[in-house]
């Protein structure tokens, strides 16, 4: 990958008057500011629909888009909405935080109006979209409609004939809810139109889009309902042992793949998923990449201390992916418990891994110290799971601060964030990605996610005008100095 730098900012965190960041004007404005700062990359978090707890890493579909990101003003320009359809709605008063409850209550009703006005206007394009996405679109739309029909209960608590997808029952509900199913499909079509328009604009301005996909789907998802054969039947779930993020380990609760079944079917589902993802993004980050070499399996009803590491598909999966997609531009998120087997797997795949500066100063010869980096890597000050760099520094133990000062010179609350951004930029890592919160030098209230905290995450939003000329000029300067500018 070419030497360059970029910013990590999820779509949800863009400024917007409608409760959450969208693919509208603020996204185009952000591209302009990235271009002015001579950045090469915009990294987002997973853009799949979210369920309980609003985590983009536990999506209700591996293929669908998050309809919350559809921009109303763009739909109004297309003649699918009127200002009166949405301007008076209360999507929350706090411009720095997402109100997911308000979005859940209000956004789908507005999008239904866009469906009613647009279904005939875009009939030809919509028909092509349905054909191209036939492998997942209907199942997802039916799942969403049935969730509402069954009062948003987990699908395991639906009527038994629906849980088992008995053909007569599915056909009856499909006929009964045909219009609602089509409306959900049309919403996905609208997202894709807005996404590719934004991506084209970014690419024309020299910005590549880095997407992100979680290794797992949610336990209550379209995939687990429509294709239970993809998953283990013993009720075991994913998680992690005790680590940097959580002393007790983490119980994610995601269902685990039946890798024997996947192998017997030539990893067809994963190949399809990767093809679609690399159609949407220029570069793809895969979360929890080490889980392909070995995954942490927690038995049904157990806790992380009851779990064990189990061998995954390893290189065979990526051999199949590379056969279908030669030289795929993939970034491997290789944080967490890494041993020699994982390192060998990463070397075999050849994808760049992650380096996080907040992990670098706890020990003297850490792999996260810049003098130990290979070029084939991506360096961050922190990720969406980390604290902001300013608050990390404030709460670091004295020995960490002493080592940090020995490495970068005197560090204070006023200068440490920019010093660490500069350190990332000067490293040999091919790509440097800085979270927007660190560009803005924000404190801990701007943290995106607490891995050990189930609720209240994924809410932070950037205020309008925060990424101002002074910050753009400084970022452009360090980008040019360290050879990361176009």
TrEMBL record:
UniProt keyword terms in alphabetical order: Carbohydrate metabolism, Glycosyltransferase, Transferase
Enzyme Commission number: 2.4.1.25
Record carries keyword Transcription: no
Pfam families with a match to the protein in the record: Glyco_hydro_77
Catalytic reaction annotation: Transfers a segment of a (1->4)-alpha-D-glucan to a new position in an acceptor, which may be glucose or a (1->4)-alpha-D-glucan
Gene Ontology biological-process entries: carbohydrate metabolic process
Molecular-function GO terms, alphabetical: 4-alpha-glucanotransferase activity
InterPro entries the UniProt entry points to: GH, Glyco_hydro_77
Gene3D superfamilies noted in UniProt: Glycosidases (3.20.20.80)
Family recorded in the similarity comment: Belongs to the disproportionating enzyme family.
Protein's name according to its UniProt entry: 4-alpha-glucanotransferase
């Amino acid at each position: 990958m070419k030497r360059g730098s970029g910013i990590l900012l999820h779509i949800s965190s863009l400024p917007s008057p409608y409760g959450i960041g969208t693919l509208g004007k603020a996204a185009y404005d952000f591209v302009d500011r990235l271009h002015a700062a001579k950045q090469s990359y915009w990294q987002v978090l997973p853009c799949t629909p979210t369920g309980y707890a609003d985590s983009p890493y536990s999506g209700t579909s591996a293929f669908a888009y998050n309809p919350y990101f559809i921009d109303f003003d763009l739909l109004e320009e297309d003649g699918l909405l009127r200002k009166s359809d949405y301007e008076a709605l209360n999507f929350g008063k706090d411009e720095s935080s997402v109100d997911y409850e308000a979005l859940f209550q209000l956004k789908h009703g507005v999008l239904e109006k866009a469906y009613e006005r647009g279904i005939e206007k875009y009939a030809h394009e919509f028909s092509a979209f349905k054909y191209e996405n036939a492998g997942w679109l209907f199942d997802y739309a039916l799942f969403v409609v049935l969730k509402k029909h069954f009062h948003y209960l987990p699908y395991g608590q639906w009527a038994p004939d629906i849980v088992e997808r008995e053909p007569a029952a599915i056909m009856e509900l499909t006929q009964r809810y045909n219009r609602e199913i089509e409306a959900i499909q049309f919403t996905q079509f609208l997202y894709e139109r807005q996404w590719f328009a934004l991506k084209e604009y970014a690419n024309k301005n020299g910005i590549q889009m880095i997407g992100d996909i979680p290794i797992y789907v949610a336990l209550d998802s379209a995939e687990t309902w429509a294709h239970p054969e993809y998953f283990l039947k013993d009720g075991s779930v994913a998680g992690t042992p005790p680590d940097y993020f959580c002393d007790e380990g983490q119980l994610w609760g995601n269902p685990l793949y039946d890798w024997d079944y996947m192998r017997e079917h030539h990893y067809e589902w994963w190949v399809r998923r990767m093809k679609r993802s690399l159609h949407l993004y220029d570069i793809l980050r895969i979360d929890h990449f080490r889980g392909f070499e070995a995954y942490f399996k927690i038995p049904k009803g157990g806790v992380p201390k009851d779990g064990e590491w189990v061998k995954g598909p390893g290189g065979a999966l990526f051999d199949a992916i590379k056969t279908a997609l030669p030289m795929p531009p993939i970034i491997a998120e290789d944080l967490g418990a890494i041993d020699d087997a994982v390192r060998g797997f990463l070397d075999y795949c050849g994808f760049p891994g992650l380096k996080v500066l907040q992990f670098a100063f706890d020990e003297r010869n850490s792999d996260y110290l810049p003098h130990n980096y290979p070029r084939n890597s991506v360096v961050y000050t922190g990720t969406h799971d980390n604290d902001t760099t300013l608050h990390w520094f404030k709460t670091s133990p004295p020995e960490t601060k002493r080592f940090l000062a020995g490495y970068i010179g005197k560090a204070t609350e006023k200068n440490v964030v920019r010093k660490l951004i500069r350190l990332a930029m000067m490293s040999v890592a091919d790509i440097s990605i800085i979270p927007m919160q660190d560009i803005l030098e924000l404190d801990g209230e701007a943290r995106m996610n607490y891995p050990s905290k189930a609720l209240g995450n994924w809410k932070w939003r950037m205020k309008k005008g925060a990424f101002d000329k002074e910050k753009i000029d400084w970022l452009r300067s360090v980008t040019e100095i360290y050879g990361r500018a176009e």
